[in-house]
Each structure stands twice: as C-alpha cells, then as structure tokens.
## 1
Amino acid sequence: MTWFAATSRTLLLIIVSACVGALYGYPQEAVILVLLGISGFSFYQIRRVQLWLQTPEKMPPDAYGAWGDILSRMYFLQRGSLEAQAQLQDTVEYLQDSFAAMRDGVVMVDANGCIKWLNRSLEPLLGLRSPEDTGQPLTNLVRAPEFNRYFLAMDYSTPLQYLAIGGEKPLYLRVEVTPFGKAERLLFVRDVSSAVLMEKMRREFVANVSHELRTPLTVISGYLGTLLMDTKAFPERYVKALTQMGQQAERMESLLKDLLWLSRIESEQYNSAHDAIDVQGLFHELRDDLAESHPNSVLVLEISTDETIFGDYRQLYSAVSNLAINAIKYSPEGNPVTLSWTLQGDDLCVQVRDRGLGIDSSHIPRLTERFYRVDDSRNSATGGTGLGLAIVKHVAAANDGQLKIESKLGEGSTFTLIFPARG
Ligand code: ADP
C-alpha cells in the first residue's frame, strides 16, 4: 500500500470515528481513542522492524499498510547489498589466493606504511612472519637501509635491486612497488640471486678471456710493428698484408681494451668512487688530449655552472671522451663539437652536441647495446669498436646518472649525461 493510500485510510478512520463519536455525544474522545490506537499500532510495527533488523538476512515480518511496502523495499535493498558484499569478498579471496600461491613474495602496505597482508613466499625473503607482523610498519621490520630509503622515497619508477644479508644466506632481491588506492602499496619481491650470479660469471668470463688474449696480441702486434719498420726487406704484396694485419691487430687491441674497461665499470657499479668531480677541469683536460689525437677537431666549451658532481673521475672522463670522439668521428671534418656543463632544474647535465651525420630515430633505443652499429659502412670507415656507448651508459648508471640520446638524421646529435644535483 502506498503512503498516499495509507494516509487517506488514516484520515478516513479519524473522520468516521469523529462521526460515530458525535452520534453518542463523545466526538473528541472517539478521535483520541482512534489516534491512540494508530500510535500503538505504529509503535508495535517499529518494534517488529527493530527485531527484524537484528537478523536482517531472515524474511521480514508481515506488516500492514505502508509498513509492508517499507519492509519489503528494505529487504530487497538489504539482499542486494549482501550479494554485492559477498561478490566483493569472493574477488578479494580470489586475489589473495592467487597472490598467496605466487612464488614471488607479495606484501600489501597501507597508506601509513603498515603491513596489511603478506604471502608465505615473502617470509624468507624479507624475514617477516605472517600473521604476526600484520599491522606493523614495514620499515621497522626490514633491516636494509637501501630498502627503507627506496620505500620511503616514494619514487617507484625503477625497481630496486639490492643485496640482502640479514637472512640465512645473502640474497640479491629485486623489489617492485605498485601504488594503488589511497596511497596503499603492493610490493613484489623476487630472489634474483641466480640471475645476478650468471651475469657475474658472464662478466668474469669476458674479462678473463680479454685479459688472456691481451698478452699474445701484444706479442703479435709488437712483431708486426718490428717487421713493418723495415718494409724494404719484403716483397710489395707482403707489405700490404702485413700492414693490414697490423691494423686489425690494433683494432683487436682497442676491442680488448674497451671490453676490459666495460667489465671493470660493470663490476664497480655498486662501489665506484664518489669523489667531487671538477667537470670544468675534465673538459679542459679532454680538449688538450683531443688536440693531440684529433688535431683537426674543433671543440667548443660552454660552462654555465660551478656545481660539482660526485663520482669516479676516470669513468666520467672515459664517458665524455667516448661521446666527444664519436661526435668528431661522425661529423664532417672541422665541424664544431660543443661540450656543455649546465644546471637544468634539479639536474646537472654534461652534454655533447654535434652537427654531423645524425642517427635515424629507429636506431636510438638500441645504440647502447654492445656492438650495435647504425650501419657497417659508417663503422668500417671510422674503425669504432661498437662498445663506446655501452661504456657511456654503464658509467652513467654507476655514477647515479642516466644517458639521454637525441638525434636527427642529417642534422646532428645530442648526448646528455644527467646527474642529480645535490641540494
Ligand atoms: P663505435 O665504436 O662504433 O663508435 P659506439 O657504441 O660508440 O660504437 O656507437 C654506436 C653507433 O652509434 C656507432 O656505430 C655510430 O653509428 C652511432 N653513433 C654514435 N655516436 C654518434 C654521433 N655523434 N653521430 C652519429 N652517429 C653516432
């Protein structure tokens, strides 16, 4: 029954009671009696609703008038919300089950940094216990300064990899954080020790092979040099062959030198020197060295900051010199190459710009791979090893920086080493 019908019925009852009461000479008393009856009935219905609301999953009691309509609507709303809640609970349980079954460690952290939930795989990785540690601040329980620094910095654009030494044996862990909801975070923690070990073995293998090859190669190029000092002793065709052997031996020597340097920077990645570097002095030293090795080069220096960066001078020198030599190599002779040292916002930038051949954008993402060449003809003319930019990228990473490459075919290239400025 609708509200309108119920109200009309009540009014009718009052009017009829007033008329009947008037017949007997007590109209007011009759109306009061009827009003008391209606109120009593309403209180009775309210009580029934109250009792039903204590166990709302049961069917609502039978009710009369508008009460019946209200109760059945409440019941349907209640049913709908219970079903939605059950569905949500199912989804949460399904997600928790799948996270629980993962081989990676998973931990959910609330906006205050306290643990909400963690899976079993995480326990040996971070030394946590479930459910005892639930509700505790994560950074109070993980005793690794790198982890805590990364977690609190709130910049999760790149994953963290660190050596965790608190557990039964040292482990290399990779941590990825995904923020969600209201500043809650989901952390995936993976044991990458075997991958790191393989990578270390590969590095050591390359370093050892390069090292072992150096001695015989030095002997070969030494003898070739001696033989070529007296070219008259050989027929013309031997001289040509010996000259080519000498050039190739020289190329192999620079390859081995670059390979050794690369594996050294890679192995120093986590403990490079952190000296204050005088970039201006570095530029001047490089200009003097290039004046000797590349006498036709034109180097322009632009220095607009006296800020210092902290890192390894030898490594940074090798990176900037690789970039400058590339800029000279891949530009028409005599084209100016600009080295600049600037503060841009929060970043300190070492930039090497040329107006040379430029690089097609399709090559740029792969340029820093070892031995990647834009095209072989370009390379055979310049005699590069294909390792220069790989070295530059690793130097940047080992010194908390990054390498940015911008280039347009036919217009020139800009290589920028970006380092964070310290306060
Ligand atoms: P390479 O020893 O061959 O120079 P790099 O790793 O230093 O090896 O460079 C990779 C490739 O990138 C080069 O072969 C060259 O084609 C291209 N390249 C690097 N620097 C420049 C530049 N400044 N201008 C044009 N091309 C460049």
## 2
Amino acid sequence: MGNIIWFDKEGDLTKWESQCLPIGSGFLGASMFGGARRERIVLNEKSLWAGGPCENRPDYRGGNKRGRYKYVAEVQKLLADGDYEKAVELLPELTGDGDFGTYLLLCDAVVDFELPSGETVDYERRLDLDKSLYSCEFTVGGVRYTHEAFASYPDRVIAFRFFCGKRGGLCFKLRLDKTHPARISAEDDTLIYNGEVSDNGMRFDARFKVITDGELEITPEGISVRNSTETVIYFTAATDYEMKYPSYRSGVSPETVTAPLVEAAAAKGWHNLYNTHYEDYSKLYDRVTLRINSQSTDLPADKLLEAYRKGDRAAMNRLEALYFQYGRYLLISSSRTGALPANLQGVWNECNTPPWCCDYHINVNLQMNYWGAYNTNLAETAVPLIDFLDRLREPGRVTASEYYNIVSDESAPENGWTAHTQCSPFGWTAPGWEFYWGWSTAAVAWLMQNIWEYYEFTGDKKTLRERIFPIMRESVRFYTQWLIYDEKQDRLVSSPTYSPEHGPVTVGNTYEQSLIEQLFIDFLAASEELSEEGELQEKVRGMLPKLKPYHIGKTGLLKEWFEEDAPQFDRSQIQQNHRHLSHLMGLYPGKRISSQTPELMRAAVMSMNDRGDKSTGWARAHRLNLWARTGDGERAYKLLRGLLGDCTFENLWDFHPPFQIDGNFGGSAGIAEMLLQSHEGVIRVLPSVPEEWESGAFTGLCARGGFVVDAEWENGAVTWLCVTAKNGGECGIAFPTNDGVKNVKLKLNAEEAVSVVSRS
Ligand code: FUC
C-alpha cells in the first residue's frame, strides 16, 4: 500500500490550513483543494518577502539599535549586584526595532471549470508521497476528469495537467486573485504576472505557459481554454532577492530567470518533466521505508484521523507510518539547495499576514524543522540551512557589535556573530522589539548543533572544513567573549538570560549555559576532526568546565534557572505547563543528559512529568523526541498519539494552532528517534518502541558516523539487521533479541554492508 494522503471529497476552498494538499520544490510551493467546478491554487515563491533594505527604507539595519552594549553591561552589573528591579527597568533598551517584514503570498489562481450538469461522483483527490504527485479525479455527467500537478526542483517549475475523458470536453477559465499591484499581461501562450512588492520594491515575475489541444485565449484577465482534451500549464516564479548582505538583491531581472524556465519546461513536456522530477525526488525519498505492523487500513485522511483518535489499531499504524513519510516529503518539498530554508510553514502560505510573519524563529522552530534531516537520510535538505546561517554572519556581526561590543574589523575579522529569536531573509539578527520574547543569545549556539550534526551523520569533511566549521568557529568566538565570571554562582555565565517565552530574567539559565556548553564540546570535536588547534581551542577547553549548566533543585527537578531555589526568586512569570522545555536541551537535541548520566536523566524525567504532556503541536513533538531519548517507548508513543490525535489537521499538517510545520518535522524525527539512536556513541536499534509496535521494518535510517541501518522486528525482537557504512569505520550496535539486548562490534570498509542478523 502506497503512502498516499487522500480524500473522497473536495476540500473547502476557504479552509486552507486544514484542507489543502501541498506540493513544492524548495523555491516554489502550490497548494490545491481538489475543487471540481472551482479550484483554488495557492501559489508561493519562497523569497517573496516584504521588509528589508530598499529605497523607502534607506536606514534599514536589520533591527539593530546602536550602542546597546552599554545597557547590556549595566543590566549585567545590576543582576550581579542583585538589583533585579533596576535591571528589569533597563530591559526595554535590549530590544531591536524597525520593520521586520513578512513572507507574502504570490497569488491565488482560481480555476472555473465548465462541467456538465449533475453530481460529482467517483471523486478522489490524493497526494501520493511515493510519487511526489498530486491528483484529483472525478466523474460528472458520465465524463471523467483528471487534474494532476507536481513541483520540480531540477526544472524549477510547477506543472498542472487537466485532462478530460471526453474528447474536447475540457473548458475552463483561470484568473489570478489576491495579486500584488502588478502588470498582468499576455504574451502568446503565456500569462505573465510581473511587478514589485509595494513595501520594498522587490521585483517578481510569474509565468503560466499554457500548452493545449483546445482553443486558447489569454488576456490580462486570465486564461480561457475551450474544447480541449488535455491542457498543461507550466508555472514558475522568481524574484530579484539574493541571500546576500547588505542589499539582498541580485540585480537580475526575474523575467530573465522565469522566461527560459517555462519555455524549457514546455519543450520538455509533461512526461519527461515528471520523469526528471521523480528521479530527483525519489533519489532522496526512496532511501527510507517504514512499516509498522501490517498497516492494512487504507482510509481517506479525515477518516483515518478519526479512526486514529478512536484507537483503531490498523488506522494508528497506518497513520504513524504515513505521518513519518509526510514529514520527509514536506522537507524535500520545502528545503532544497539554492533556496531559503523551510520557514514556519515550509514554503506554503495563503496570505500576506501569516502568523509570526512565517519567519525563521530560532528559539526552537527552525531547529526543529531540521531535526529529521539526518536520521531520516535527507542530509542534502539541510544545505539551505547551512547557507542561510553562513549568510547571517555578516549582519550578525553588526548585532554582535551593537549589543555585545564584540567587534569584527580588519585586525579581528570574523570575530563573532549572533542572532536572536527571529530572523528574516534580510539579515534581521537583532533582538525582537520586546525583550521578553525577543532576547535569546544562545539561539545561535543551538543552531550550531543542527549544522554540526550534518558532519556527524555524513562524515563529509570537505563541507565541515569549508562551510560548517567557519560558521561554528565564529559563533564560538562570540560566546567566548560574551561569557562573564559570576562570583556568586562561581561560574562563567551568559547574562542576562531569559528562558524562551516565559523567563524570568536571570543569570546563566540552563537553556543558555547548556547550549553554549554543547557548542563548545562540538567545536572541540570538529577541531579535532580537522586537526585545528590554536588559541581558541585552548580558551574553549579552559572555559568549558566553568559553564556548569545542570543543577538539580530542592524538589529533585532539573533546574531551569540557577537561582530558582533562592527565596527572592520571582516565580510570577513561570507557567506550570509551559510549552518550551528549554532546560532539557541536553537530553534532546543535545547529548549531555543520557543513560551515562543517570542522576541528570532522573531529574530530566521528573521535570518532564512536572511540565506535563499536553501542549501545542511542536511542543508535543519536542516532548516526543525527549521521551524517546529516555528509552521509555510507551511514553514516547503517548506523545506521538497526542501529536497526531490532538494537533493534526485532516490534511495532516501540524497545528499550534495555527498551522506550523515544525510539528510535522519534529514528529517525523521523533518516530525515527524511537526506532534508531546513535547519540551515545553506540547505535541502538529500537531503543524506544512501544509494545503496540509489535512488528515492523525500516530501511535507510541513519546513525552518526555515516552508518545506514535496515531492520525488521517481530514481537519486539530484531529478526533482520543490516548495516551499511558510507565511509567505512567502526561502530557498536545494540539491538533487542528474544534473549535481551545484544551488542555487536563492527568494522566496515567504505560502502560495505553487513548483515548483523540474517533472515532465518
Ligand atoms: C516560538 C513559540 C511559539 C510559536 C513561535 C513561532 O516562539 O514559543 O509558540 O511557535 O515560536
């Protein structure tokens, strides 16, 4: 049975976040509802943003106010002196300002089909994840209609095909809706939508080239096709955005990009175009398969979800495997080299005022988007993240200098960069306009885990040396200059700190201390891999033991705030069941809390119990990964069930609410984390699998060190296990058998595969 999200009814055109089905190419996105008489196609181009530098905004500075480091120093001093109230008074100075901008909708395409009268019967719309193909089929008045669409990364177009089972029976009109002020013109067989974003003058050009066997008329009002059997529309769009500080403009007219793309696509034709797309997509997607029990049910997605909520076993296993692959599908569709990384909604967005501007939130969300990139064998999809962070360094140096007095100049180039809670494609790295959510000094340290893991999983030394290490090193330089010694705590601390989204303001909270510690550890490991040794490494080695991030409080919980047991500690801002579990970074995605640190593990588990399982979509996904790391498969499964049952729309998009794609990615990563772990130096197969997942099989999951694992299991015991070493090397592997967990040591050559447990 294929991995298909399907419905036997049309989507409600007004309920985009719960009913549409998305396709994407990293650059472009489209979402459809399967409307028979009227279809709405929401179109996106990932770089189409308001905000940033432009003629109307000559003073754009990425949100940075000037000379804020003076206030920061004052706040640090006041906090060290215990004058909390005065420190708090100064916090509004530690903010950014200016226009942040927002991700924009490109436009809707509304297609009105002229159909025979009568009811729509034998209806089905589907998103085939295995084929990366959207389709919708139905019969009206005895005539069968088929709509199909796919988004091609290699050819940078989206192709829509409309087919009618009765010769010449296809008639429709397509018009653009919700457009930006633009010129809409017709050139032969192509509708052109060309303009500038009014906020910042960003130029864009979108083209719809129509190939039809019917009669075609294109005017600025839209496309009209009559008496056709088959019509294909090749769509593409581009802007003059470039991920490059300070102008963020390429200087290239977008039409010089789009015009050849649609011409080439049309010349290639639907089938060849699809073949190229499928070849590209399947090379990534096909690397991993997953079966949980028998997955025998095949229900429409809305009914599947309903059955899931009722605890129907077959539906549960089916949906879990489908959700897992959906996360991978969404990542391949929204994060490809050359484009911006996946934003809060991947690449899909239906309006010009999306929640949180559909930005790059880095106090959990952007990180979570990429949690599944490596263990689910899609390392290539993390390249846009590496590119994005690399390009954030230049504006991030301005923030480092204005807020932290860490200055890069000729004598000290690349001396430190930073960013805060939210980033934009225009190098917004300043704190937010309110301290309480906007200050997050360690967010970049967290992101460094995402890119270091690229190397851990792939062993790609060239990328480590040339791309990843320079970004990490400059971040490390930043933190080594930022940390100060606090006498009362006898630690090197980040100060002030604010635990994401619920504070309070303290010195050296666990979130910041633990993320900086993990960065230092990873930086030393990276340096060793590259044989880099010098003053910085020496300094980091000296600072590392003084960070002391983890402390267990009076109640046995892992402390979120160093000072939390002190009588004067302000508990008023703390929410008991807060969604962020910022003090548990060391358990997941970090590695410092593990089975090797049983006391901390116990405290972490108590803390998770204290916070509770119910939360928003992404926060459940975080909890799922955290519990998977504890080895408690039943609890991890409970979180997965909550994520799918309580935080998933019927199109299987995750909601916060609103729709937020991080939960999809985090959920997919979490399922992989239940099946395979490698953060403790040993590869553990089925480390956190619930009894419910009695039998199953997976192929292609990745472990650190470049090992790829395939396995089958029955009644919880592994019945087949195959390990392939991409780069060769040694590893230990632990897996459950009928006689307990078995440990095996392996030594493999590059590309060598061994069958650790053979099929009997
Ligand atoms: C984080 C979360 C919010 C939301 C936002 C986009 O700050 O705390 O819940 O997900 O990102």
